[in-house]
Design a protein that fits this description.
Fumarate Reductase Cytochrome B subunit, two-stranded antiparallel ribbon
Length: about 200
């Protein structure tokens, strides 16, 4: 096996920028909800709004990059057989020393479970977070756009539920990244310098 650049400089940049922005949003969001008080309510709201716009800008640019480079293909789900093999690996084989059923290459970086997880992140969690957040932010203008009959409480609930889904994704992502590599912290290192065995 040779070491190749698995993750380009831009992939590593948007990955870490995304992580930092999401962490700031989670921290300020829970501060706004009163879970704890790191900064004042007003400061938390302002930081949350600014960070949200930065995140949306990053994600729009990243979507453009995925389309131009063809990297969007990494997220297309693969066969059901391969998905079942990955589920068996994570549920059983990883603890019993069974071999990894997915061989990572530059053209196929994500295993079938990762593809499903990232696809759900991109087509469900992120859009729900954006839409509910924008509706929440522009609540004073609801009557102008014809949705004045909606409940602000329901939008807040949906936004918070999406934040918890994002937090759950982040926790599972970190756990798997830190514990499933053959090399100690191998996936973390690869996302820092870009190199991984192929």
């Amino acid at each position: 096996m040779s070491r190749v650049i698995m993750y380009s400089g831009f992939e590593r940049f948007w990955h870490w920028a995304l992580a930092v922005l999401i962490l700031i949003l989670l921290l300020t969001g829970f501060n706004i909800h009163g879970t704890y008080h790191i900064v004042s309510f007003e400061q938390a709201v302002n930081i949350h709004i600014i960070t949200s716009w930065l995140l949306m800008g990053l994600l729009v640019f990243t979507l453009f990059w995925h389309m131009v480079t063809g990297e969007w293909k990494q997220y297309i789900p693969s066969s059901t057989n391969k998905l079942m093999a990955m589920m068996k690996y994570y549920a059983l084989d990883i603890f019993l020393g069974g071999g990894h059923p997915h061989h990572k290459t530059r053209q196929s970086k994500l295993n079938p479970m990762q593809r499903m997880a990232y696809l759900s992140l991109h087509i469900a969690i992120t859009p729900v977070t954006w839409i509910s957040g924008l509706l929440y932010l522009y609540y004073p203008y609801w009557d102008n756009i014809g949705i004045g009959s909606w409940s602000l409480g329901m939008i807040a609930f949906v936004h918070t539920a999406a934040a918890f889904a994002m937090l759950a994704f982040l926790i599972v992502h970190l756990y798997l990244a830190l514990t499933t590599s053959e090399e100690r912290l191998g996936y973390l290192k690869a996302m820092l310098h870009g190199y991984e065995k192929e």
